[in-house]
Amino acid sequence: MRPELRLNGVGRRYGVRGPWVLRGIELDVAPGTLVRVEGTNGTGKSTLLRLLAGIDAPTEGRVTGRPRTAYVPERFPPALPFTALQYLTHLGSVHGLSRRSAARAAGEWLERLGAGEYAGTQLARLSKGSSQKVAVAQALLAEPELLVLDEAWTGLDAEARGELERAVAERTAAGGAVVFVDHDPRRLADAPDAVYAVRDGALHRRTAPAGVPDGPRVVVRVRGPSDAVLPADVRRTVVRAEETGPGRHTLAVPASHSDVLLRTLLTARPPWHVVSVHAPEDRR
């Protein structure tokens, strides 16, 4: 069972007498949840993410339930003596993958993010956008239990931005947790389970604790064997599931998660038949 990350009374300041950047932070990040963190520049968003990722230690308070974590920083250091593939393979090995598995995962993520042609390029020679793709790939290749993204979409082209959104949906559908900061308020706007604002060194929840995120949704009607049970990954993805007959279900899912849902259904064993996909206002 994946651990739940908890921050209890956490505070952080830099230096013995430095001002408190954060104080009294209480936060639970449960498996399978997507959490957005907002706030103006300089409020401590990045400090909070570094605490969640285990990069920084709290000055006071406790962090418990540490899951396997991967982190995409706001600024990725590209001037390292590796090619993109060498760097990713090395990090995959650090995360516990065999070198062969790490190299395979590295190549797959570079291709998926549109950077496959730069696998043999030295990191120092990559553009800012390509460096950011490597930063994203290193966080995803070992399938972390907690993914922490600090402005990870910045510098990516449109296709890579979309691919990262799909990767976020895949992580949460698989039971992982994702915490992210992004300057674009439209980023995954319909998907978060909770939204927090960092203000005056404190953390304020902006969504109802038990609320379901509003936003565009898709209705999917599926059919499977009469005794089949919906896969667990599907149940974690959907907002609502209704059994309409033996092996027949109507599912409502956030639009940003619909492609992950369909992929899960079609690759299940036995596979499910997708009868229809439409927006709720459609009358089919």
From TrEMBL:
PROSITE patterns: ABC_TRANSPORTER_2. It comes from the Bacteria. InterPro entries: AAA+_ATPase, ABC_transporter-like_ATP-bd, ABC_Transporter_VariousFunc, P-loop_NTPase. Signal peptide: none annotated. Keywords: ATP-binding, Nucleotide-binding, Transport. The keyword RNA-binding does not apply. The lineage of its organism: Bacteria, Bacillati, Actinomycetota, Actinomycetes, Kitasatosporales. GO terms for molecular function: ATP binding. It comes from Streptomyces olivaceus. Pfam families: ABC_tran. Residues 5-225 form the ABC transporter domain. This is ABC transporter ATP-binding protein.
